[in-house]
Amino acid sequence: MANKAPQIPNIAEFIHKIKSGEIFSDIAKEITESQLWTSAFRHGYADTPRNRVLQIASNVWLHLHPVKMHRHALRIKFTWCMGGITFLLFLSTVVTGVILMFYYRPVGEYAYYDMKYLQYDVPFGMLMRNMHRWAAHAMVITVWLHMFRVFLTGSYKPPREFNWVIGVFLVTFTLLLSFTGYLLPWDQLAMWAVTVGTNMARATPFLGNEGPFAEYVGVTPRYDARSLLIGGSLVGPPALLRFYVLHCIFIPLIAGALMIVHFWRIRKDGGISGPL
Amino acid sequence: MAQAAAAPKKKVEGVPEKLHVWPYLVRLEFLCALVTIIALTVWSIVIDAPLEEAANPTKTPNPSKAPWYFLGLQDILVYFDPWFAGVVAPVLIIVGLMLIPYLDVNPKGNGYYTYHERKVAIWVYCFGFLVLWIALIIMGVFLRGPGWNLFMPWQYWDPHKVVALVSVDLPYAFGFRDYTWSAIFGGGVLLAYFGIGTGAYFFMERKALKSVGFLRMLLKIQLALIMMGIVIKIVLRIGFNIKYIMVTPWISV
Ligand code: HEM
């Protein structure tokens, strides 16, 4: 009789399992010992110090990291994770940007209508465009915050002086990336923001046609620092093409190269700074 | 039960200073990335990127604004000629930022947050970043309307708002009417500002001269004086309607 009675789950034991966290290892065991799991993964991952090192050292993407690091550098309160988030946002713009390039032609007659096409006809076109634009704007903000954090922790002090210098180049190129991209939708917002921005080049001392001392150099509106930048005396189709090439090829390559050096220097300078 | 809860804490305290990057850092990075990507995706689903009418070179919008991250510089244009606000100031900002590690020789506060061990450095950076850069951007985005005039958020952006142009040059305010003498007076004021500022700084910090070095101190005070000068000029314009300090046929400041 007693054997046939249905087993009543022991609630107290169950609650104890939840409280102590044992429930997680029970669930993990259920999953990893299931037929589906064992058919896909030939062996488990043994959490040994040697394997922890190998995970980093023998992975092409992860080996940018050191295999061990100081505890303090792990705190989000210390780094705000801002450098990493900046890098992630940069990667997001690369991915979404390449997709946008499939549909966009940097030609005066087409550019604006390609944007419309992207927005209304291309599947997920609007989403790709939004992600590209918002990631770019967010990157500007996060790179400023990253710089602010690095200043507040005094992490530019020896031996990291030069990585700060590389960082200033990076913040400059981040702004230039964003600025050159601003023109590409070829709408009123784009054209006039870039007009306002590039008008400044006209005032470059010596090299801009309205700049101080220009008369001694002999630059003209059609042949000065500004016309070099926008390929003419006003923001027109040549400016669109120039900004496109700068935006999609020239500046990303330089910024990417600088990021590689930036990350390499973090390692060479002894990892993330800390009180020592 | 109480013992079970206390055990992990003890363990954490016993953990060595150096930790494995896998899993401790990689899992944090993964979480950060996840949160960032989700936030970006939600933001992109909810808010569309702007697309106005097609570019039209014959239709200038009023106001014409640079991208928001440059609005601090565009705002400085009110107080300075384009050669300074648009070219020299950005170059000075970039070069000045790059020089920070070489000018700040205070060995303290390397790798941890501290205010007390580097008060001046923190104040200068926060002032430059939060006030001269961020606050001006916020003002440029929200308060600058047609004609680059200031509008409070509750005010109508009247494109025909008339603002009296009553500003005069500093030499004029001091009674100079002759071009040459105005230029000499204005130049004198600038020279005096930088000369006295530099002299006073060197005098005050004379004990540090040997350890810090002459060139470092000179560059430091010049950059500081330029930054303060920008603020002084903004105050002079808003408070006293002064347009230029020095006027010459080539450049005016
Ligand atoms: C595209 C822009 C940038 C990317 C992707 C980037 C990425 C990173 C990452 C991932 C780190 C590791 C620590 C952290 O996340 O805080 C880092 C550290 C660092 N970054 Fe950047 N960074 C950028 C721009 C800058 C800028 C603008 C500066 C300063 C002007 C800068 C200076 C530094 C320094 C000095 C460190 C070492 C910090 C320490 O040791 O505590 N970086 N960067």
- The termini of chain A sit apart by 71 Å
Tell me which ligands are bound.
protoporphyrin IX containing FE
Largest interface: A-B, 91 and 76 residues
Mean pLDDT of chain B: 90
| Helical content class of chain A | 55-70%
Detail the poorly predicted runs of chain A: none
Quaternary class = heterodimer
Report the sheet-strand fraction of chain B.
Answer: under 5%
User: Which structural class do the helices and strands of chain A define?
Assistant: mainly alpha
Going by CATH, the homologous superfamily of the domain at 76-268 in chain A would be: Cytochrome Bc1 Complex, Chain C
Biggest sheet character of chain B:
none
N-end to C-end Cα span of chain B: 74 Å
Helix and strand composition category of chain B: mainly alpha
Written overview of the protein:
With 276 residues, chain A is an all-alpha fold. Chain A has a domain of 193 residues: Cytochrome Bc1 Complex, Chain C (Up-down Bundle), CATH 1.20.810. Chain A is 63% helix and 1% strand. Chain A is built from 13 helices and 1 strand; from the N terminus they run ααααβααααααααα. The radius of gyration of chain A is 28 Å and the shape is elongated. The N and C termini of chain A lie far apart (71 Å). Chain B has 253 residues and is mainly α. Chain B has a domain of 90 residues. Chain B is built from 9 helices and 1 strand. The N terminus of chain B is likely disordered. At the A-B interface, α4, β1, α6, α7 and α8 of A face β1, α2, α4 and α5 of B. β1 of chain A pairs antiparallel with β1 of chain B. Bound molecules: protoporphyrin IX containing FE (HEM).
